[in-house]
Amino acid sequence: MRAGLSANGLWKFRRGDRGSRLARCDCTLYGTDALLAVDAARQLGFAGTAKHTLTLEELRTVVTEGWHPIVFVDLSPIDGVEDVHTLVVVAVSQYEVNVLDPLNGERLIPLQAFSTAWALRHNLAIIVER
Q: How far apart are CA 123 and CA 52, in angstroms?
C-alpha cells in the first residue's frame, strides 16, 4: 500500500490502491475495525502486526523505542465531539502527546485529555511490524 500524509494532513493513497486496501480492513466513513486492520496489515506483509492494550508508561516506552503505534480514542475529551477516531503517536512527554491525525495533521494533545480519550477506548493500540 502506498499511503502517507499530504501537506494538509489527510491520508493519501496511490491511485488504484485505495479501494482494495480499504476493503481489506473494512474502512468506511465511520471508521475501521481494529482486528480487521491488523489482519489487513498482516496480509500486506507486516506479519508481526498486533493489537495491544497498553498503559501510558508502556506507550511512552514503545514510542521511545522508535515505534509509532496507531491508537483508538474517543474524541469527546479532546475536541468535544462524540466519535471514535484513530491517531498515530509520535511522542509522549510529561505534559502532552504529539500525534499524527488523519483529519487534522500533526497536533499536540494535553496528556490528561489524551489519557482520558484513550482510556475510553480501552487503551487500544496497534503496532505495525514486519
A: 8
